[in-house]
């Protein structure tokens, strides 16, 4: 029994390694192609812009990957991307710029953002973990409800004129890179370390692999899964703040449709929807791959609507690739 | 083999029958309440029937999606397929001068074809339907946008627009007739035909279905073909309703349709549920939404109500089905907690 188990883990590890090894050359190849195709690709400004535009996606993908690894699902993260920064900002700004006109201090508004993200995760976790409802349906309902609330709160308009603190992640730079890039990199590094070396991280894989076995091994399955939903909500809200920084305002449809790209990045990065496998390094590579592809297509002036088709093609390709690597 | 399937069905029919009849009662109550309390909801029988034109395309998609969900899959590409089908229809009519009804048939056939592609990707490569149809939905959407060009076609002939806006004798909308025919067809197919039983069996237990000699891959693929064709048809009805096409016109379909199917009592795990429930859910959600819009509620409130209904539906279904031990456990835990506190207090 124990021999069997360790065999499984080895199998999974090799599988993950293979995926990472398959992705890195793809990324390098894209960089080489980019350099050959466009002289403005391998410039510092362009690399910074790729990283900057990937940062928001990176936060949400990180959150979603954690949820998928424990074998669950969260569609509502895209709504969190919109609603958390919107509510946070509206508490602060005056009525004239679409706020509530309460005029709370900026610090409190900023604090509300992750708080709200965490709260939504808490609610999702309650429904999915405690009431054992289907995660797909629960978070779909949550997505619809939150979208409605955001449209209602923002009156269908745009929230603007925010204090600089709301934009600082995108506008301020450190060593030439936007703060959002550093923050996303840090978040991924912490997550990768915890998943690889910490008991808690190993527990996530165990739960996703086999929740009953994890429970038998003394892992607090419910509590940890619930916690993952909260953390991913917080991460998505920070992702939303980054989007806000880049746009400079909050549309009522901020985040709409983003979840599809999030899943694309996670799946390309080798996070299996069945749960229990996938690495943070892979997920990050998935994000960067999509970022580079989008940038290349823009530079070469491919009509923007083909970008989606190419995303779709990459997803299909990586699905087939993963079939091949598992069979071998 | 057929015996075991029949046995499963008759066992599963009892709670589902309960679910459907509860939905039906809700629907009747809701229509009655809206008619008395919302001025303009029931001005005349024909105007009341005319309300269905606003939501029946959702119903058409829901019928096809139900078959996919019954097999335990999901089709996220219905929105893009609807847009693609409508655009291809419109382009064939405008640029090739094709008679519009021939173009309509080709549009629906194209929907079936992209459904076939979905099905083959899912069954041949053994991929998650969620991710596979997500990927293809990206692709269909791009192709649709590319075909539509800068200014998508509009201004179709009146005979075609009648499909979306017209009514027989000014009373019964063509959309309603189309939907009714499809609903009866689907209900018969799923509950009375061998094919329907195979779909349910594959969804209930795919391995068992395979061991008993069913060609699971082929059956699952066929479900996606049906879903694709229905999505394209819905897109074409929408095109007639607006007398215009847009590549993103199907985007609104997806979330509402999944809500409808689940509310209709089809288990997201597959193998459970009936078309009857979905049809009632289409009418219930549709009339509810129209009623609220007429009563002056904003789009936001109606959206939120849809989400809340979805949550309530799945919670209640969970309580009713055997899977719903979660709630019972929770209640017991709270009760125990109270008892512990009580004993502590009495100490």
UniProtKB/TrEMBL annotation, chain A:
Q: Determine if ATP-binding is one of this entry's keywords.
A: no
- Identify the main location: membrane
Statement: the UniProt record of this protein carries the keyword Hydrolase: no
**A Pfam match:** BPD_transp_2
Query: A single GO molecular function, which one?
Result: transmembrane transporter activity
Q: What does this protein do?
A: Part of the ABC transporter complex LsrABCD involved in autoinducer 2 (AI-2) import. Probably responsible for the translocation of the substrate across the membrane.
Instruction: Return the protein name.
Output: Autoinducer 2 import system permease protein LsrC
From TrEMBL, chain B:
Designated name of the protein: Autoinducer 2 import system permease protein LsrD
User: What residues form the membrane-spanning segments?
Assistant: 21-42, 48-69, 100-123, 168-189, 219-242, 262-288, 300-320
Q: Name one GO cellular component term.
A: plasma membrane
| PANTHER family for the chain | ABC TRANSPORTER PERMEASE PROTEIN YPHD-RELATED-RELATED, AUTOINDUCER 2 IMPORT SYSTEM PERMEASE PROTEIN LSRD
One Pfam match, given by its short name, reads BPD_transp_2
Q: What is the lineage of its organism?
A: Bacteria, Pseudomonadati, Pseudomonadota, Alphaproteobacteria, Acetobacterales
**What is the protein's quaternary organization?**
The complex is composed of two ATP-binding proteins (LsrA), two transmembrane proteins (LsrC and LsrD) and a solute-binding protein (LsrB).
Q: What does the record say about its membrane topology?
A: Multi-pass membrane protein
Q: Where in the cell is it found?
A: Cell membrane
Q: What does this protein do?
A: Part of the ABC transporter complex LsrABCD involved in autoinducer 2 (AI-2) import. Probably responsible for the translocation of the substrate across the membrane.
Query: Which keywords, in A-to-Z order, does the entry hold?
Result: Cell inner membrane, Cell membrane, Membrane, Transmembrane, Transmembrane helix, Transport
Show the GO MF annotations: transmembrane transporter activity
InterPro entries named among the record's database cross-references: ABC_transp_permease
């Amino acid at each position: 029994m124990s021999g069997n188990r360790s065999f499984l883990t080895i199998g999974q590890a090799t599988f993950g390694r293979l995926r990472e090894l398959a992705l890195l050359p793809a990324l390098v190849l894209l960089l080489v192609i980019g350099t050959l195709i466009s002289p403005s690709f391998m410039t510092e400004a362009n690399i910074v812009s790729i990283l900057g535009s990937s940062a928001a996606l990176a936060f949400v993908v990180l959150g979603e990957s954690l949820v998928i690894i424990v074998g669950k699902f969260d569609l509502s993260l895209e709504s969190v991307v919109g609603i958390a920064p919107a509510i946070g900002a509206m508490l602060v700004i005056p009525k004239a710029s679409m706020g509530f006109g309460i005029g709370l201090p900026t610090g409190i508004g900023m604090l509300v953002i992750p708080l709200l993200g965490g709260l939504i995760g808490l609610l999702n976790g309650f429904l999915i973990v405690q009431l054992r409802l289907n995660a797909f349906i629960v978070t779909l309902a949550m997505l619809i409800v939150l979208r409605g609330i955001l449209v209602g709160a923002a009156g269908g308009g745009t929230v603007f004129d925010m204090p600089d603190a709301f934009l600082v992640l995108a506008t301020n730079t450190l060593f030439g890179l936007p703060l959002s890039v550093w923050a996303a990199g840090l978040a991924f590094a912490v997550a990768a370390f915890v998943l690889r070396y910490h008991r808690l991280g190993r527990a996530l894989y165990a739960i996703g692999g086999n929740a009953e076995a994890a429970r038998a091994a003394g892992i607090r399955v419910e509590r940890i899964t619930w916690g993952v939903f909260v953390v991913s909500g917080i991460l998505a809200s920070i992702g939303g703040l980054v989007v806000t920084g880049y746009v400079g305002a909050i549309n009522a449809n901020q985040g709409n449709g983003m979840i599809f790209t999030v899943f694309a990045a996670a799946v390309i990065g080798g996070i299996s929807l069945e749960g229990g496998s996938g690495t943070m390094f892979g997920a990050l590579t998935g994000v960067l791959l999509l970022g580079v592809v989008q940038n290349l297509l823009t530079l070469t002036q491919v009509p923007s609507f083909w970008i989606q088709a190419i995303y779709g093609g990459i997803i299909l390709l990586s699905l087939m690739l993963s079939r091949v690597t598992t069979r071998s | 083999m057929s015996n075991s399937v029949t046995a499963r069905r008759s066992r599963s029919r009892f709670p589902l029958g309960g679910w459907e009849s509860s939905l039906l009662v809700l629907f009747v109550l809701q229509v009655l309440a809206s008619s008395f309390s919302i001025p303009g909801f029931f001005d005349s029988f024909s105007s009341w029937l005319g309300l269905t034109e606003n939501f029946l395309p959702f119903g058409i998609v829901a019928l096809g999606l139900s078959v996919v969900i019954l097999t335990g899959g999901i089709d996220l590409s219905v929105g893009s397929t609807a847009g693609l089908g409508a655009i291809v229809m419109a382009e064939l009519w405008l640029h090739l001068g094709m008679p519009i009804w021939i173009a309509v048939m080709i549009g629906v056939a194209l929907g079936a074809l992209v459904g076939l592609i979905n099905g083959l990707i899912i069954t041949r490569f053994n991929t998650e339907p969620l991710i596979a149809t997500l990927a293809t939905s990206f692709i269909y959407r791009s192709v649709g946008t590319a075909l539509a060009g800068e200014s998508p076609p509009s201004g179709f002939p009146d005979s075609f627009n009648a499909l979306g806006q017209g009514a027989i004798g000014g009373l019964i909308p063509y959309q309603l007739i189309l939907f009714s025919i499809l609903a009866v067809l689907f209900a018969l197919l799923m509950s009375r035909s061998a094919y329907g039983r195979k779909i349910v069996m594959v969804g209930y237990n795919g391995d068992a279905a395979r061991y008993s000699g069913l060609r699971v891959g082929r059956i699952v693929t066929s479900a996606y073909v049906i879903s694709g064709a229905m999505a394209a048809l819905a897109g074409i009805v929408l095109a007639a309703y607006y007398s215009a096409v847009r590549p993103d016109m199907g985007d609104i379909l997806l979330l509402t349709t999944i809500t409808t199917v689940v509310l209709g009592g089809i288990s997201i795990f597959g193998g459970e549920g009936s078309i009857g429930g979905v049809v009632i859910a289409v009418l219930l959600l549709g009339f509810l939404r129209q009623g609220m819009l007429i009563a002056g509620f904003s789009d936001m409130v109606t959206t939120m109500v849809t989400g809340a209904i979805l949550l309530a539906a799945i919670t209640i279904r969970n309580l009713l089905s055997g899977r719903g031990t979660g709630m019972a456990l929770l209640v017991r835990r709270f009760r125990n907690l109270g008892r512990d506190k009580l004993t502590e207090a009495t100490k």
